[in-house]
Every structure is written in C-alpha cells, then in structure tokens.
Amino acid sequence: MKALVAIDSFKGSFSSAEAAAIVAQVFRQYGIDSTGVTLADGGEGTSEAFLANQRGGRWEYAMVHDPCGRLIKAKYAFVPDERVAMIDAAMASGIQSVKTDVGFVNPVMTSSAGTGELIMAASRQGATKIIVGLGGTGTTDAGIGLMGALGAKLYDSYNQLLPANISSINLIDHIDLSEIATKRLQLVACTDVDGPLTGTAGAVQMFGPQKGLTDANLKDFERWFQHFAQQVDPINQGQLAGDGAAGGMGFALRLLGASVVPGFQMMSDVAQLADKIAATDVVITGEGQLDHQSLHGKLPVQVAQNRAAIPKNMPLRCRQYSIDTIRSTRCWIYDCPFPDSTSH
C-alpha cells in the first residue's frame, strides 16, 4: 500500500512539512510506503510550502510595520531566476500581533500597511510577479492600509485627502490609483477562503470576531465595509469570491489589479498534487481545527474534494472538529493529537 500525507500546518505547533514528515515516518515504521507533500491553502505557511516546491528559491527579509505600527522583521520567499516572490500576509499582518493577555487590540487601531510594505520590498528585490497568501491575518481594515502603503490615495466627497486607515473608511468617496507602485507588477492574491467582503460569509461577520470585533462594533464595521465597496466597486460591490480574505485584503488587491486565485488550487498545481494522489492508495489530510470555515476553501476539504482523490480512502487528522462539517466532507476522523511541539 502507498500512502500520501497532505496536511496543512497546525498553527502554533507544526508546519505542513513537519506534520507530514511525522505521519510519514510512522507509516514507514510499519512498512508502509509513504510520502509527505508540503501544502498550504493560501493561509499561514504558504510561502514555506511554495519554497519547498521550488528550485533555487531563498528567504529574503525586510523591516515592515505590524498591525499595531511596531517595526518588525518579516520574511518572504523569492525565486531569483523566475523573479517571483511569495508573501504570507501573516508575516507582516499576522493575528499573533494583535493578541493581548486579555484579548485583542482594538481593531480600529490596526492596519494592513505592513503587507503593502512587504510587497514593496519584494519589488525592490527584483520580483516582477508577487503572490500574496492571504490567511492568518489579524486585521479587518478592508485592505486600506495595504493600499495606502502601495501609493493609493483616498478622498472624501469634498476631494480632501484622507489617511489610509480604517478610521477613514466611512468617509471615502473615491480612490486614486494613478500613482500606485505596483503598476508594472503581476500581482496574485492567493486566498484561503472564498467569502465576499460583506454579508454573513464576509470579512466582518464570519471572521471579524476571531480578530477582536465584538457585538459593540460588528454592525459598524459591516456598514463601513458596505459603504466602501459601494463607493469604489459599484459594479461588484465586494461580492466576488475571495474579496473577504484577510479582513478585506483580497478586495483591496483586486482593486489594484491582482488576479484572485484559490490558494489550494495554486499550491496543488505547484506541488503536482493530482499526479501524486493518482499514484497512491490512501491520502491522509488534516489541520488544527475543522469547522464551518473549513468549507470555504480550507486545505483538508479541498484535498478531499480533489477529483483524483475521489476513489481513495481519506483519513483526516485534526485537533478539533465539527460533526456537521465532517458530514460535508468525504473523510473519516482520526483525532489523536500530535505530540506537543515543545517536547522534542
């Protein structure tokens, strides 16, 4: 029997490569031919998975601002021969930066500017194609900070220039993209969710609470996002798939001319996943938590729904899961936890 291990990262414990290596090692101990593949779905760890499936790539580093305005050192993947960079928005605008001992930093005080700064750094390094993985972020600013860092200008109805932050969002009348620094770049927004900017499956209502939004400001943010979308995107109004990724960074990047692609689709092509699944008997997948959000583009469900995997056995490994979500997949559950990462 041949086994393929295609597991997402376990946030705070293991990367995709580490998790796959552990499971594959156990299989080999029992004489089962097994292979691990490093994957991601556009979320945390996508640049690492991208680099693992490339030749001649390396890490580059840049100083950028985190969501709270603190200067941090962030890294991104760069393939010089192809002049391609792969950025994790979480490296600059990660959710870990907005957590406190008692909860979260006030979302009104956070910004996605650091991700825009990281895009600029990759461009200065020589990248002409920049892929931005949009998962694991801690901001909910509709990508306004990112846009400002790349040169977008925001104006109110009196044609007065506004600061590029969330406090301006309900005043925005129009935006000027004539001086954006990404005109000559091929931008790709790599999303780990397929939700729109607004609505029940959008950036605010579905993902805002896990980034610090509360009942007290949830309705305000939703109203602000609706206003912003109506003003700057009158045709689609932020309702395209992926617009809600990373607190609205997917929407902002689309406005800047980026193509928006499902992260799993891109990474599975890079890793030649379909060919590897076709050559195996059983596929093991998983992530830290499987819930209703997993059905909107997350890796384990995408692996299970891969056309090449339809006739395969499909064990799923996770720390927490929702029974209703499991019924929506083709997997059976194996929930024995990985060992604590601090124990080795």
UniProtKB/TrEMBL annotation:
GO terms for molecular function: glycerate kinase activity. Keywords: Kinase, Transferase. Signal peptide: none annotated. The keyword Translocase does not apply. One of its GO terms (biological process) is organic acid phosphorylation. Its EC number is 2.7.1.31. SUPFAM superfamilies: Glycerate kinase I. It is an enzyme of class 2 (transferase). Belongs to the glycerate kinase type-1 family. NCBIfam families: glycerate kinase (TIGR00045). This is Glycerate 3-kinase. It comes from Lactiplantibacillus plantarum subsp. plantarum. The gene is glxK.
